[in-house]
Specification:
Elements (H helix, E strand, L loop, with lengths): L2 E8 L9 H23 L4 H13 L20 E7 L5 E7 L5 H11 L4 E3 H10 L13 H11 L5 H6 L5 E6 L5 E7 L20 E3 L4 E7 L1 H7 L1 H12 L3 H15 L4 E7 L4 E5 L3 E8 L5 E5 L2
Parallel strand pairs: 3-4
Antiparallel strand pairs: 1-5, 1-11, 2-3, 2-6, 5-6, 7-8, 8-9, 9-10, 11-12
């Protein structure tokens, strides 16, 4: 058994504000990323390659808040975070606060595979990228009119539900189980619209926004990062399986529908266990998500069915 799940962020635009054309474009972007990652698994590739491939396509899609199309800080800059982890040896890599890396998930993987570290930040992460032969892009590469308009709404003091929602929307991630039985997870984000003080959320933090362990599951999270950090969401789900004998579905729902709301945390997770069971759960109005298991059909969803 093998399978892949991806997400493009929880807390989507309210259903009433999502046009038919927008929905089609989001669905197409999710399907393309899922198909690319699943093809890796189908050909016998690794779960690491599958999640990397899927997340790169999401980073390159301006509909999502990662890479090209990342949100702006209050000062009008883009600061990108990403992490990746594999479940066999618990190796992991992460970067945060980078400003010139086209595909942050690739740099996170380089940190995992080509350094003695787990998390590098800002200019230090970019120095490391240079030693690995990464090309740099100008800040203008990440610019989109839609993200700039979102920043202007936040700067203007707009406190409407849709303005507050879009401040958090669009983090991307993937989880996979390959034919060898190895799990992997990856997450990438531009953070929050209008963030200040070099704020870092849960996405690059192993155990908060990303975790993979062959003994339990792989998880990628999306939502209000500060709460996900405090609750160690990704690790907590795996720990409930390992030490509490919960199923993946039980562990995910206990955390996403119990722990997070009790802490006023909105968001969701995608997850897959060592048997190929996929669970995608959220406590917001919607979550951009897609999945496919061996022998199954592609599933793409935004709101609850």
């Amino acid at each position: 058994m093998y399978g892949l799940a991806i997400h493009g962020g929880a807390g989507t635009l309210p259903r009433a504000e999502m046009s038919a054309d927008q929905e089609l474009r989001y669905r197409a972007g999710l399907a393309a990323a899922l198909d690319a990652g699943y093809a890796v698994l189908e050909a016998g590739g690794t779960s690491l390659d599958a999640v990397s491939t899927a997340v790169v396509l999401l980073e390159d899609n301006p509909l999502f808040n990662a890479g090209y199309g990342a949100v702006f800080t209050l000062e009008g800059h883009n600061e990108l975070d990403a992490s990746i982890m594999e479940g066999r040896s618990l190796q992991a890599g992460a970067i945060c606060g980078v400003t010139r890396i086209k595909n942050p998930v690739k740099l996170a993987r380089a940190v995992m595979e080509q350094s003695d570290f787990v998390l590098l930040s800002g200019t230090g992460a970019e120095e490391f990228a240079a030693t690995c032969g990464f090309d740099f892009v100008p800040q203008s590469y990440f610019f989109t009119d839609a993200r700039w308009r979102q920043l202007e709404r936040i700067r203007s003091g707009d406190t409407s539900l849709s303005a507050l929602t879009i401040a958090h929307v669009g983090t991307v991630g993937a989880v996979a189980l390959d034919q060898r039985g190895d799990l992997a997870a990856a997450t990438s984000t531009g953070g929050m619209t209008g963030k200040r003080y070099r704020r870092i959320g849960d996405s690059p933090l192993i155990g908060a926004g990303t975790y993979a362990d062959n003994r339990s599951c792989a998880v990628s999270a999306t939502g209000h990062g500060e709460v996900f950090i405090r609750a160690a969401v990704a690790h907590d789900i795996g720990a409930r399986m390992r030490y509490g004998n919960s199923t993946l579905a039980e562990a995910v729902r206990e955390v996403v529908l119990g722990v997070l709301p009790a802490m006023n945390g909105e968001g969701g997770v995608i997850s897959i266990d060592a048997r190929g069971e996929i669970v995608m759960e959220f406590n917001a109005e919607g979550m951009f998500r897609a999945s496919r298991k061996a022998g199954g059909e592609t599933e793409v969803h935004i709101y609850r069915s």
